[in-house]
Amino acid sequence: MNNLIYSYINYYFLIINFIFGNDRCIKCSKLCINSLCKTCKLNILNKSKYLKIDETNFNHFNRVYFDEVYSVDTYTDLFFLIKEYKFNNKIYLSYFLSHLLNNLIKKYSIDFDLIINIPNHDFLQYTLYLALNLSKIYKKPILNFISILNKKQKQHFIENKDDRIKNVKNKYILKKIIKTNNLNKNKIDILLLDDIIKTGATINEVSKLIKENIKTISKIKVISLAKA
Ligand SMILES: [Zn+2]
Question: 179 C-alpha vs ligand 1 centroid, how far in Å?
Fold first, then answer.
């Protein structure tokens, strides 16, 4: 997946949306071209909580492999937007969602060397599009080395905490061996990108995989759109 294919996907869904007459703001129903009007965009940018998630939220793990967790907003407040992006294929909303993530990074001055996104089951890779935008803004590479095993169930269909933790066990695998020496650094900080964090089972499993396979990792800083 490169930037060109990503732009084509964006335009494709933007045109489809226009043809089928869904060219209204998802928040206030005013006519607009990319599903959010200027006023609503500004409102969301200003009213989002930009949270630092306390580590006590992850006390249910025997071991926590990530170091810091941040989220643009709560699940309740941002779900309307994530739903349109992920489940109604409004892929072009990735630009605005990246803008929110960028505000989060700026608020906490989150420093990083590499971006890793959590992959999903579908053809469209929602967190990868966000990662591509952030990679462009910060001029940091994306390490696209994690694959998902398709036989596992989709995590958002599972409500029970223990079942969620069990479901992600060995769900992710490495695509290739990583060489990070060309980064010229002894210690590398990772920006790990996910869309929604519930129990933290997914981010913990992927963080474990990263730390076990890249010896030069210093910190894993997780950013997400929403914390449930
Ligand atoms: Zn609006």
Answer: 45
Per-residue pLDDT of 105-153, as tens digits, reads 999 999 999 999 998 888 788 899 999 999 999 999 998 888 888 666 6
Could you give the angle at the alpha carbon of 141 between the alpha carbons of 135 and 58, nearest 5°?
Answer: 80
- Distance in Å, CA 44 to ligand 1 centroid: 10
| Ligand 1 centre distance from Cα of residue 32 (Å) | 8
CATH number assigned to the domain covering 48-227: 3.40.50
- Give the global pTM: 0.88
Task: Copy the structure tokens of residue 68.
Answer: 């810091």
Span from the CA of 163 to the centroid of ligand 1 (angstroms): 38
Q: 126 CA distance to ligand 1 centroid (A)?
A: 23
How do the residues of the chain divide into helix, strand and coil, expressed in percent and rounded to 5? Answer: 45, 20, 35
For residues 118 and 34, give the distance between their C-alpha atoms in angstroms, rounded to a whole number: 25
Dihedral in degrees, nearest 10, Cα atoms 213, 217, 222, 223: -110
Q: What is the pLDDT of residues 155-211, one digit of tens each?
A: 667 777 787 777 778 788 887 666 655 666 778 999 999 999 999 999 999 999 999
Task: State the distance from the centre of ligand 1 to the C-alpha of 132, rounded, in angstroms.
Answer: 26
In the chain, domain spans: 48-227
Position 111: which residue type?
A: D
Tokens of 180: 């990070």
